[in-house]
Fold:
Amino acid sequence: MAGKDLRDLLRNQKLVLPGAYNAFSAKQIAQEGFPGIYISGAGLSNGLGVPDDGTLGMEDFLYMGRWIVQAVDVPVLCDADTGFENIEHTVKRYIEVGLSGLHIEDQVFPKKCGHLSGKEVIPKDEMVGKVKQACTVRDSLDPDFVIMARTDARGAANIDDQQQLEECITRGNLYREAGAEVIFPESLRTKKEFIRYRKEVDGYLLANMTEFGKTPFISAREFMDLGYNIIIFPVSLFRYHAGQTKMFLSRLMQEGTQQHLVNGMMNRAEINGLLDYKG
Structure:
């Protein structure tokens, strides 16, 4: 089963997982030697022309997940937002597609990007129930499939500012006790907060190193030294590609030729080589 590869990696090393928003970018990530792929809900949503606000449903995630799993030989971890309409069905379908693991978050639906203001979280007990349901299905279908739980308590509008970090820690421990193998504290604000979280929450931890958010720039090596097991760069590749696309189109509009931009492109042979196309 696909989950075993991710679980084995977690036991033996710290993982840096860039986010892929389509199968080609996933193949590029794997070619560069990264040990796995992350599918970000934000990257997938933005790539389909909509914001990360819960517009996409489970079938959208599964469609892209299926193509990415087929494209690479490394484990694929996929965002599952708030679990969609039925967490048990979600886990079942993710396993069937060949994904190695998922994470669900404790936000109120419709969700928001974890680094935006105004997000709210559901009661802890409700999320604990979701985690237990997810783990029950996992245990019956593929015990190696990895269940991760994300808490958005830090920055939640329905929790007092002074209590957010405490609540984030409390929820992380509760979700761990409920069966989640990996805890994902979203939107921590400082390196000190990451240090404290590592000290007070047991088990595997995931750190989200996104740009333009609440978390300052911390390198993958620094996160590893702090004891974090997975470091994701969820939308970095999409945003970089988007910036380059904007630059290319602007110059094409001004100059009417792509000639001076060809050196920045992958050529036909490189693309076909990545795709294993011998035609």
